[in-house]
Records
---
Amino acid sequence: MRLHVGCAMWSHRSWPGHRLPPTERLRHYASWCDAVEGNTTFYATPARDTVASWAAQTDPDFRFVLKLPKVITHERRLTDVDQPLRAFLDAIEPLGPRAHALWIQLPGSFAPADVPALGRFLEQLPRSHRYAVEVRHPAFFTDARAARMLGATLAAARAEWIPFDTTAFFTSPPTSDAERDAWTKKPRLPLRSLALTDRPIVRYLGRDDPTRTVEGWQRWVDLTVTWLREGRSPTMFIHTPDNADAPALARRFHDEVRARVPGLDALPEPIPVEPLTLF
């Protein structure tokens, strides 16, 4: 029984570890949170040496949820992708067990008619990894038949369905520049909260006001407690529009769940950041 929590990145200009050398920032982040979204891999497959440095900065039970490159998911739409897929899998091999799941984020244009292509793609993937899929076409959330078809395809491959919960964010108009920017970019979809596997993954977007973020995640606290009691090991990613407080909020989410599930292990104590000096 384990709850992992994390953020959309491991370095941010407002976080305590930002002033550390780049090669130390992940190590510092990993003392705050024990999971991270690998969003950068969407834009380019990293060098194997770079990935090895990520492994060196984290414990084996740290979780990376790595997004497949866009050439696979968005440009080629899961077809004729053998070469970029092999290159990606080879690059991330140094992570070993830290590669918790490979994240297949599909474009909003990926519709129910495209589910057979997803099924064929999932069938060809090596069983050495877990897989999790995020869809953004509205029909998967409003059409019961489309949801069942996708769910059955994922279940056949033992893949998870990642919800990106933006419902708390869209409850009222934005009040900051970061919120106004997110208002135009984030998907506005109905809530989905059904886990398909024993390791559900959730992405939650709150507000820049921490109080409102905490208010909006209470349903996820309840569900996470239920999942843990069922023997599942969920991973929760906390987003806010500016992400300034995301690591502290992720730890708070873990604390709220642990208060109701006392057997849950505590997160590590954050590494203190030494002040920079001239000597």
---
Amino acid sequence: MPSEHETVGAYALGILDDAEATAFEAHLAGCEWCAQQLDELAGMEPMLAALADLPGSGSTPAIGESLSARPSPRLAEKLVDEVAERRAQKRRRSFYMVAAAAALIIAGPLAAVAVNGGSDGGRQVTATPAQATFETMADKKSATDPSTSVSATVGMARKDWGTQAVLELKNVKGPLKCSLVLVAKNGQRVTMSSWSVPNWGYGIPGAKTEESKKPLYIGGAAAFQPNEIDHFEIVTFEGKKLVQVDA
């Protein structure tokens, strides 16, 4: 039997019977929390009713339970999106985002990161697994920017949850902080990973030290499938594009 706190959404939707509605209204008179949640849902009844009537795959009860348990403006916005967009696509995208986040955690050891923020005295972490993964990838795209002379190759692998990527970056000097940004065909932008470039740089032709000669290999992940990707950008934290790689 749900508590009175958990019936706010059902009350807003108008699906309580007379006895339940009377009991909730008595509770509402002395409960500031429920009154606040009900105010947030004011005017939402038609939209909620439309959502409840939508045919689909059974996700509506779960949404209804979330509404009853934790109604908020943020959740209300999500419900509006559910009505406006196809729910199947919305659920798939949400699942992919969670999977991609998990993949980033798992892929963490694959990333090669200069942890000192750009000083020559810092420590460089070299991740051989990232390079090994990159070399096994069959789908690779490369580009060199004519103005910055920075070269990048992005290796891609399709996953059930989206795309795994490994970046090979060359001829870039620091100190810089950069990101690998995926730009989808629908215009959405997703940061796949970020890192620091030390003073000595990565993949510098004719460099005097081995660490400067080596390219950077860094892993990333995103919810989009390879055929949904338009291009990749390597950009600094200040917004300067170093190189773009078309997918």
